[in-house]
Structures are given as C-alpha cells and as structure tokens.
Amino acid sequence: MLLRRRTEAPKPNTHPPITYESPDDDDSRCEKCGSGDFPDELLLCDKCDKGFHLFCLRPILVSVPKGSWFCPSCSHHKRPKPFPLVQTKIIDFFRIQRSTDLTQKLTQDNLRKRKRASGLVMSKKRRKLLPFNPTEDPERRLQQMASLATALRASGTEFTDELTYVTGMAPRSANSAVLEKGGMQVLSKEDIETLNLCKRMMNRGEWPPLMVEYDPKEGFTVQADRFIKDLTIITEYVGDVDYLNNRENDDGDSTMTLLHASNPAQSLVVCPYKHGNIARFVNGINNHTADGKKKQNLKCVRYNVNGECRVLLVANRDIAKGERLYYDYNGYEKEYPTAHFV
Fold first, then answer.
1. Which is nearest to 340 in space by CA: 296, 281, 292, 290?
2. Per residue in 140-199, pLDDT tens?
3. Where do the H-state alpha helices sit in 20-69?
4. Separation of CA 309 from chain center
5. What is the pTM of this model?
6. Among 189, 133, 173, 160, residue whose Cα is nearest residue 303
7. pLDDT by residue (tens digit) across 245-297?
8. What ranges make up the beta strands (E) of the chain?
9. Angstrom distance (rounded) from CA 258 to CA 6
10. Distance CA 283, CA 326 (A)
C-alpha cells in the first residue's frame, strides 16, 4: 500500500494493487459491520484471525500495518497512562530551560511583547501572523504540557520543536526552498520574528493553549484550551527530515510533504514518528462531506524561511475554547484517504 502523505503531496508512483486474502477463501467478514466487502481493506488479527475493516476500527487505520497486527480485544488496548503532573518531570521531558519556574505567572515583559505582536493584525498590503497566547494559569499550563507528554510517550516519540536531521537520512543542506517546483511562499521578516517569538516562549515553558485528549473514535486529538484568534501560529510540523524516495513504502500515516522538488529525487518529507511535537496529533477533516469541511479551523502552509522549507499550522478562523483542531490532510491531490474520517 502506498505511503499516505499529508498535504500537497506529489502524485504517487503507480504500483500494482496489493490484496489481502484470508485463509478461508474470502469467507472473512468484518466483526464491526458484518460485511466481507472491500477485502483489500480487511485486516485479519494475527492472534484470533478475526477480520476488521481499516475504516471500521476506532481509531481508524489509514493503511495496512507492515508487521503483525492484533485486534482491540487481543491487544487489550487501554487508555494511555497519564504523564505525571510534576514540574521537574515535565521540564526534563520537554528540555525546558532549567531556570524556568513553570508555576510562575507570565512576566509583564512577555505580556507586553505579545500585546505588541498581536496588534500587528492588519496591514494595507497583507495580514500578519500572530503568536499564540499562553494560558495565564501556570497550573493549567502544566496540565497542557502533561497531556502532550502522555501522547508522545504512548506513541514512542521523543519531543522536539525543530526539524531534525539524522545520519543516514536527508542532510540539512538538502532542505533548500529554491528547489520547490513552482516556487514557495516566502515568510516575511515580521512573520519570522513572530515564529521565533513562539519558539522562545516554548523554550521558557510558555506553552500554546492546547490540550491533547484521547478519543476512542479518533485517537489522540488536540483541542483549544482558550480562545484562539484567526492567523495565530499553532505549531510547526516537525520531525525527522528524509528523502521522499526513502519513504514511499512506509506505513506511517503522519508523513508530511516538506519539499516538492522539480526533481523527485530531491523531494523531502517530515517523519514525526521518532521525533515530533503536538502537530502529529492534530486530526484531519473528512473532505468528502460538507460537515467534514466545516470542521476545518487550521491551514497547513509551507514557507520559505531564510532559504529553508518549513511547515506551519495556522488558525484560518477564530477558534473557540474547547473546539477540536482540524486541517485538510490533502492539498492539490486527493491521495490521503479521508472518506471514513469521523
């Protein structure tokens, strides 16, 4: 099965379809819906041999896993164990500046900086990006960070808030925005300053007002923990950077296009499986239905930032407290299968 990439992915190479047949000669049926239709998307448990459609599982599976797979009953799937709500453990997990006291309230200097930045909303030429506005309550910020730590630990992901370059994958020198087919939108100097402000705030433990929750139907989800204004930077999509050609047959469902080069051999993707942040837990809309499209409150934009490709998730409208965050996993292509998304 082809790798599922999020947003503006190039057209996949043509491969013969892969079929998965049961040892009972097509007698397998889905335990959820009772149908034997769509055999290519019918998974058989490697322990009990019962069948489940990818799209009938909760959370939905996007692709057939490469290795062994066990159904919910055989895997004894449980809710993830919460990360300890202990300041020292949270500081260590996220590698926050050790001088930071997360229980202190935001400094007046930081509040003034954000106030000035948030005032740069309108321009005669264009609208500017806004920095996120952290929750004032320090205890609540600890809870927000602990919720993300829970999700990252459950998925075996080490936290990073930057693109990572690992030996054996694409080097940083390969990340050149000038290689983008058709060119890439350049992030302005003012918006770069806003992005850097967000990074500095996170290094100090001043977190975006986001809470990660586990939903039995959708898996990990992200919701706004306070009102978020339109055009606010939510997060950067980060992880290990690799060449697309090295990842064509991966079964991961969170790989993001970073560079769509004219020469396919130079195209890059972000792989947030070993290293990542909250971006990998933001869900996609069902872009086959009107109701699904109405859920979208973020946009995913690739920018040229000082010559390098970066991917940002930005609010595309005002977002109310408690609202879940969604964006469109598909750009120009309809490659990512979202027809069965909740």
1. 292
2. 999 999 999 999 999 999 999 999 999 999 999 999 999 999 999 999 999 999 999 999
3. none
4. 17
5. 0.77
6. 189
7. 998 777 677 889 999 999 999 999 999 999 999 999 999 887 777 777 788 99
8. 5-6, 42-44, 51-53, 158-159, 210-215, 219-224, 233-236, 240-243, 255-259, 268-271, 275-276, 283-284, 298-305, 308-315, 326-327
9. 10
10. 5
Long-range contacts of 65-68, Cβ-Cβ distance < 8 Å, separation of 24 or more: 65/251, 66/251
- What does the alpha-carbon distance between residue 71 and residue 77 come to, in Å, rounded to a whole number? 9
- Give just the sign of the alpha carbon dihedral 249, 64, 286, 17: positive
Query: Exposed/middle/buried for 294, CB within 10 Å: 0-12, 13-18, 19+?
Result: exposed
Instruction: List the structure tokens of 58.
Output: 């909760």
Q: Please, are residues 294 and 40 in contact by the beta-carbon 8 Å criterion?
A: no
Q: Which H/E stretch holds residue 145? A: helix 138-154
CA-closest candidate to residue 169, choices 258, 237, 263: 258
Helix (H, G, I), strand (E, B) or coil at 319: strand
Question: Across 78-82, 124-128, 337-341, which has the greatest mean pLDDT?
Answer: 78-82
Say whether the peptide bond before residue 72 is cis (omega within 30 degrees of 0): no
Closest CA to 71 of 104, 45, 97: 45
Q: What is the pLDDT of residues 33-62, one digit of tens each?
A: 888 888 888 888 888 888 888 888 877 776
Apex CA 159: angle with CA 313 and CA 231, to 5°? 15
* Tokens encoding 197: 């402000």
Distance CA 339, CA 342 (A): 9
